[in-house]
């Protein structure tokens, strides 16, 4: 069984052509993907709603996580093994390259703990760093 089918079945998702293609994009990508990137790379096979629903089900199951962008849109990246349905454990920093525009998960850079005042509850901490990625730095 290939890794795509295994991931889908492990997360109790039916194996559809749309899910296979979208998950394949994430597995072959070395950075985060925007909704538009996914639509462009899956061709005209799937409408916008199908792509959106697939992404949302992947987020809900802990397969991918969201990354906020400076223009208030969202990018998506693969989760690590610790994530699961209903809870994400992607406590790492994301870097947005100011040269190529790609977004990368920096898995070895942990987000700092945030201590809020009494009666406030932390639900998620998102740290996005703007800088230059490894590839652009070596050009």
TrEMBL record:
SUPFAM superfamilies: Winged helix' DNA-binding domain (SSF46785). The keyword tRNA-binding does not apply. Keywords: Iron, Metal-binding, Zinc. GO terms for biological process: negative regulation of DNA-templated transcription; regulation of secondary metabolite biosynthetic process. Its cofactor is Zn(2+); Mn(2+); Fe(2+). GO terms for molecular function: DNA-binding transcription factor activity; transcription cis-regulatory region binding; zinc ion binding. Binds 1 zinc ion per subunit. Binds 1 Mn(2+) or Fe(2+) ion per subunit. The keyword Phosphoprotein does not apply. It comes from the Bacteria. Zn(2+) binds at residues 97, 100, 133, 136. Fe cation binds at residue 91. This is Fur family transcriptional regulator, ferric uptake regulator. The lineage of its organism: Bacteria, Pseudomonadati, Bacteroidota, Chitinophagia, Chitinophagales.
């Amino acid at each position: 069984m290939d890794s795509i089918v295994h991931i889908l079945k492990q997360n109790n998702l039916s194996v559809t052509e749309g899910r296979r293609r979208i998950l394949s994009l994430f597995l072959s990508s070395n950075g985060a993907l925007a909704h538009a990137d996914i639509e462009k790379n899956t061709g005209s096979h799937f409408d916008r709603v199908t792509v959106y629903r697939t992404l949302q089900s992947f987020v809900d199951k802990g397969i991918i996580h969201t990354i906020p962008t400076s223009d208030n849109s969202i990018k998506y990246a693969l989760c690590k093994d610790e994530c699961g349905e209903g809870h994400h454990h992607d406590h790492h920093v994301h870097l947005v390259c100011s040269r190529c525009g790609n977004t990368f998960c920096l898995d070895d850079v942990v987000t700092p703990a945030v201590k809020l005042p009494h009666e406030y509850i932390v639900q998620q901490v998102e740290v996005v760093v703007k800088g230059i990625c490894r590839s652009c730095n070596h050009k």
